[in-house]
Every structure is written in C-alpha cells, then in structure tokens.
Request: fold
Amino acid sequence: MSLPGAAELAGTNHLTDLHQSMDRWFSEVARVLPWRSSDCSPWGILVSEVMLQQTPVVRVLPVWEDWMERWPEPADLAKQPSGVAVRHWGRLGYPRRALRLHAAAVAIVEQHAGRVPDSHGSLLSLPGVGDYTASAVAAFAFGRRETVVDTNIRRVHARLVSGLALPAPSLTASEMRLAQSLMPDDVELSVRWNASVMELGALVCTARSPKCSACPVRDSCAWLAAGEPPPTYTPKGQAWHGTDRQLRGAVMAVLRLADSPVAPELFERPTADLGFAAEGTAVPLAALHRLNSAPEQLERALEGLLRDGLAEMHDGGLRLPA
Ligand code: SF4
Reply:
C-alpha cells in the first residue's frame, strides 16, 4: 500500500480524513477525566499537566483531586510554604515538580492577579513552565491552536506518518515541523486533535504493544504498511532499584510524614533502633533501611535533596522546606 509521507500530507484530503477519524474515535472512547471537564479551571489544567508529565493518570488522579480540594486557586497554594506542596505531592515522584508548581502559583498571584495567564508566551514566563506545558495549557485551558507534542504524540506521529517504531530519543526540529504540518486549521478541531492523538498514544499506540486492531487510523499507518519494522535503537529503561532516585524517594517519604526535623543519623540506623524516630516515621524509615544503601550514596541523596530545595536543615535535623 502506498501512503502519503510526512511532506505530502499537509493540506490533503488524506489529512482531513485523519482528523475526522481521530475526532470520531476520541468522542467515542476518550476517558472521562476531571481535568477534561468543561468546568475545570485553567489552574486545574495546569496542575494536571505538570503532574501527568512523568506519572500515569491512575496515580495522578487522587493527588490532583486532593490538590484541587486544598488549593482550588493559585492563591490558595501560594499562601502555603513550599514544603506543604512537597508534602502533598505524595508518591508521584520527581517532587521538584511540586516546588515548581508552588513557584508558578506565587508568580501567578504576584504578576497575573491570581489568574493563570492565557497565552503561550505568558505561560512560558512562569517559573518551571516549559514549552510543552505552556502549549498544553494554552490549548486545553484556553482553546488556543497550539502544537502540543508530548511523548505519546511523538510516538503516534513516528508510527502513523514516518513509519518508525519509535521517535528519536529526544525531540527534533523535524518532528516539530511534522507536528505543525499535521495540525487542523480549525481552532476547535486543533484542540481536540491534540487531545485525541495524545489519548491514542496513551491507550492504543502504546510504547511496548500497540493495539493496532483497535486503532481508528490503522488504514493510514505508515509503520503497519512498512511491515512493522523494529526500532533502530533500544530505549534506555528508567532504572529504579538501587538508584539515587529510589533512595531520595525513600528519604522524602520519611520527611513527608515527620512532624519535626529528622536527625540525619536516623536515616542510617538499623530498623531495631527506631525508638528515636519521630512519631509516624517508623514505617518509611524501615523501608529506607531495607534499601541497605552505602553511606556515601545516602550522603549524596541527602545533599541532593538539600541542594534542590526539597529539604532543609533545621535544629540539626532535616525537614521539608518551610
Ligand atoms: S495502527 Fe498501530 S502503530 Fe499505527 S498508529 Fe495505530 S496503533 Fe499506532
């Protein structure tokens, strides 16, 4: 089967068909998610976009709901110390995102009268908001025609249009040009196109085992037409066990539950000596000790948390930032 390549697609009936197929599929199968509701605020969408960047929907949902109940407006979060945001980040991982959201909330209050700004440029000027988040919030919160490119979208474009099993290891200029060329001209349709391609990547065109028989655009898929060629490289797995990231996560779990500073020695003590543990921290401390980390790795993890502003020293112990 001969399919149009990336360069020929723009402006063709084939592209219009793709838009329509994806739009129909999205209205039939899209997950009902609170940040997709028409009454979700731009702040709720910004928070969801940051949480979803490195964490699956199922883990984000309860934390997002908790955040929205506590801090329905940026001003509610901005009033809190940044450590409270980190505490309620829970186990979403990459907790620097909580600090970034807190800093964004403060900037929204100080520079935008407490309202999330509505253009890509002004969103981009918020601390911790990068190009992807600015595009996604401008599109999904304010209905703007923005080219949104996340990991899922990149993978769908690579297979559907470029005939590759996987996109390049990191975003390239030609991928951005391809994504721009695929965008519908109609503004409303462009917003749904972004959301539908993202959803296809999350539910059907998944990284490890695409469910092509359930794909609404399989007849147009360049990767299928090419005979499903294998990836040209092996993606780097995200190691976890034994890493500094795992150890940092275990330390953060202790700090989130501690109601007073935790003496650094406690992180090193064996489980049997937990009589010194601050109330409520015995379980996460035991989990930390089970990792059996080398002293130098523990020291590196603690230093990293202090350096990143995720913890601070107070009264000789470690605590979340005040
Ligand atoms: S047919 Fe398969 S590989 Fe192609 S876009 Fe659909 S799910 Fe992805």
